[in-house]
Amino acid sequence: MKIGIPRALLYFKNEKFWTTFFDEIGADYIISPETNREILTRGENLSIDETCLPTKLLIGHVDWLIDKCDYVFVPRVAFWRGYSMCTKFLAQTDLVSNTFREKAVKLLYYNVYDKKVYRERKAVYKMAKFLHVGRAQRKYAYMMAKQAQKYYEMFREQNQMRILEESQKLKIMLVAHSYNLGDRYVGAPVVETIKSLGCEPIFAEYFDESECIGASKAVTTTMPWAYNRHLLGAIELYKDKVDGIVLLTTFPCGTDSMVNEYIVRHYGDKPIITLTVDSQDGTAGMETRLESFADIIKMKRERQ
């Protein structure tokens, strides 16, 4: 049995966790390639216009995996760390199932559907049981997967903290969800442009999730979305250590459209720019806006 993993949405958040788990149980799996125009176009053609770009990319990646695997891994996650997830994470399993219903795509189910802390572990064990993995092996594989994810996140954060403290370059915090930041089509051009301008990109996503969610409570007690709280808390904790903030979002993201507006209003004394990526080709406009933004920050630093 071969498992297909779409390189989209939650993959970018949990890559180390999932791949380590599948490796430990001896599963055969294939990961779809980096996003390209063909994958995006296929996702667009199979989606309705109102679908957000990351979900269109998910559909495109699933389409690429069809006929290359026996089961496609599309997890359903409704809650994380006690907060809600965007509805696309709750609906993506059904969305994929219905989009490809004529092809009878088989899905490997993984459901985290309430706030109880053990739900992730239970979802993993249930999935492993379906794959005929014994109790001891799935328990060990889960432990190793959690450890691999933890060490990966710690290394990533420590490296970023070092840059934050030691680099003399202009530091621009890139506030973006992992599925936007990590995608070759969406996030990579922005990161590469920031670096080409002689600035140091600082990723809000890389700071400790639990610590950031805790810090976000000092800003708002009513925001329901876990991932947006992570990013908001990173801004709150490290705003004084960066020179500017780039809010990277995709069209038409409902949660970001509200949260980013709140961020702009709440942190109005900090240079902030919002970049919205859609399915259009070309990065010239984005590059021009970032170049102007960097110039403004440089002039502001020189006057201080």
Spatial strand sequence of the major β-sheet: 2-1-3-7
Gyration radius from CA atoms, angstroms: 20 Å
Based on CA inertia axes, which overall geometry fits?
globular
Name the helix and strand elements from N-terminus to C-terminus, one letter apiece: EHEHHEEEEHEEHHEHHEHHEHEH
- Which CATH architecture of the largest domain would you pick? 3-Layer(aba) Sandwich
Mean residue pLDDT = 94
Q: Give the CATH level 1 class of the largest domain.
A: Alpha Beta
- CATH fold-level label of the largest domain: Rossmann fold
Which helices and strands, and how do they pair?
Elements: E1 2-5, H1 11-24, E2 28-31, H2 37-45, H3 53-65, E3 71-73, E4 76-77, E5 79-80, E6 83-84, H4 87-99, E7 107-108, E8 111-112, H5 119-130, H6 135-166, E9 170-175, H7 178-181, H8 188-196, E10 199-203, H9 209-216, H10 226-238, E11 244-250, H11 254-266, E12 272-277, H12 284-303
Parallel strand pairs: 1-2, 1-3, 3-7, 4-8, 9-10, 9-11, 11-12
Antiparallel strand pairs: 5-6
Helix pairs in contact: 1-6, 2-3, 5-6, 9-10
